[in-house]
Amino acid sequence: MKKGENSEPFFTSIYLKGEPENKNVSGSVTEDRLINRCKDNDWAAQKELYNKYAPKMMGVCLKYLKNRETAEDALQEGFMTVFTKIGTFRHQGSFEGWMRRIFVNISCDYLRKGKNLVVFENLEDSAPFTDNELNALEKLERDELMEAISELPDHYRAVLTLRAIEGYTFEEIAVMLKTRTAACKSTYYRARHLFGDLLRSKHLI
């Protein structure tokens, strides 16, 4: 299939979009009860929910924010938002996915507030990886890839992570970053090239 803006993110299949869905019915019921208790402002339930999801959500924040202290601020703000908006969760999808979007949005807000996010326009796209490099890329460990992505400048790391890892569309990313869809596409394509150069410099592909 010809690569282009309508193709799937270039290494989405390598990344896991969250943990595998829990098929345990009793576990699902237990979580539903925990969520309902949080909706009733049960402090003990809120603490339990925080302890359960804080490590994963911190990982989400660190994908976008290199500074750990800033990521911790985003984590706290994210949970305040979760507990404020938890009444709007209708149990019709993944609760973790619902939470994750909140933390992604807040992390992007912190990037904008820090004026570290620059989105470029009018950059032409060309395939940044050869077929052999793509094969090597698929064999890399997730930690190796994430470490390499973390070395990219903030603006490239944010757009690359949103598109290639989280799987958001360019239109959704533009809304999150309050910019133009065309600018997001150009920044993403440029980020892919830089990411490829970085992997080659580390002899990972």
Strand content: under 5%
- Any idea what the radius of gyration is? 18 Å
- Please name the CATH architecture of the largest domain: Orthogonal Bundle
- The count of helical stretches stands at 9
Report the major sheet.
Answer: none
Overall structural class, as computed from helix and strand content, comes to: mainly alpha
Number of domains: 2
Shape: elongated
Spell the H/E element sequence: HHHHHHHHH
Q: CATH homologous superfamily of the largest domain - what is it?
A: RNA polymerase sigma factor, region 2, helix turn helix motif
Q: Indicate the percent of residues in helices.
A: 55-70%
Which fold name is given in CATH as the topology of the largest domain? Rna Polymerase Sigma Factor, Chain: A
User: Segments where pLDDT lies below 50 for 5+ residues?
Assistant: 1-26, 115-126
Strand segment tally: 0
C-alpha end-to-end distance: 22 Å
- Mean pLDDT across all amino acids: 77
Which CATH C-level class of the largest domain is it?
Mainly Alpha
Helices and strands in order, then pairings?
Layout lengths: L24 H15 L3 H22 L3 H18 L9 H19 L17 H8 L3 H9 L3 H12 L4 H8 L3 H21 L4
Mind explaining what this structure looks like?
With 205 residues, this protein is mainly α. It has two domains: 25-113, Orthogonal Bundle (Rna Polymerase Sigma Factor, Chain: A), CATH 1.10.1740; 117-201, Arc Repressor Mutant, subunit A (Orthogonal Bundle), CATH 1.10.10.10. It is built from nine helices and no strands. The protein has helices at residues 25-39, 43-64, 68-85, 95-113, 131-138, 142-150, 154-165, 170-177, 181-201. The longest helix is centred in the first third of the chain and has 22 residues, at 43-64. It is elongated, with a radius of gyration of 18 Å. The relative contact order is 0.13.
